[in-house]
Amino acid sequence: MKPIMTNQTAKQPTATPVQGQARKKEVISDYNGYDYKKIFWEDADRKYEDAADRIAIRRLLPKHMHNFVDIAGGYGRLADEYIPRADVATVFDYSETELKQAKEIHGDQLKTKAGDIYDLPFKNDTFDALMMIRATHHFKDMQKVSDELYRVLKPGGVAVIEVANKKTLPKMFRYWFKKSDVNPFSLEPVHLKEIDADGFYNYHPKYIEEVFKKSGFQIDKVLSVSNFRSRKLKKIFGTKNLIRLEKGAQKLLAPIRFAPSIYYKLVK
């Protein structure tokens, strides 16, 4: 259940209602039968975006974790970043297709679990660390998601969560020049129906930070990630040069929450 779709035209998976009788309004994207690894990452040449995620994860995840879960982790794209740090590593996702790929790639190094993001199939205080990358844009009820992440994390545990940012410079320019009616300065989440009719949301940093605090999290660190996500910049500067710039920009631009992806290190 993942990706951030900014600046791409890959075919979208269809969205389906989440499992559970009580929640009929929330939706998640169903990646069953969709080759997310090939179509979104490999065919679209997202080496820069992948590297940017990895730089942030290396900075924020604990060096050693006993029981770790990658929430909405799909086919385990980032598993080689956390498997060496964890005694036990699990990837959780809605898509059985992606979880099967994760097993094929990583074998017994990685456990898999399918289920509903709004009702995680884990007991309270199960994990001492978790992460959720490129998933928030599918979640209408981020407070419920945040509460569930808090519930399954042990006291003192660390959560690394990436959030699709509503307040980016390109969105500001589009708003100022009347190319978009989406106000990046307003706090409420925006539902980008032109990208996905059922589930593509961006969040203002102040809004999402209040969501995390309401769940009980403390915000420990923030990074601005994928700061140079642009086809034009890739053509002009090349992927390797953008990755070099990214390493310095993540911390430098964090105070202004600049990038399309904002990473949070949260502590329970």
How does this structure look, described?
With 268 residues, this protein is an alpha/beta fold. The chain has helices at residues 36-42, 47-60, 79-82, 96-106, 142-152, 169-176, 205-215, 231-237, 239-252, and strands at residues 15-17, 27-29, 65-71, 86-93, 111-114, 127-132, 153-164, 190-191, 201-202, 218-225, 261-267. It has a seven-stranded mixed β-sheet, with helices on both faces. A two-stranded antiparallel ribbon has the order 1-2. Strands 8-9 form a two-stranded antiparallel sheet. Helix 4 (96-106) links the parallel strand 4 (86-93) and strand 5 (111-114). The radius of gyration is 17 Å and the shape is globular. The protein starts with 14 loop residues before the first strand and ends with a strand. Residues 1-25 have low confidence and may be disordered.
Please provide a brief summary of the model.
The protein has 268 residues and is an alpha/beta fold.
How are the SSEs ordered, and which strands pair?
Elements (H helix, E strand, L loop, with lengths): L14 E3 L9 E3 L6 H7 L4 H14 L4 E7 L7 H4 L3 E8 L2 H11 L4 E4 L12 E6 L9 H11 E12 L4 H8 L13 E2 L9 E2 L2 H11 L2 E8 L5 H7 L1 H14 L8 E7 L1
Parallel strand pairs: 3-4, 3-6, 4-5, 6-7
Antiparallel strand pairs: 1-2, 7-11, 8-9, 10-11
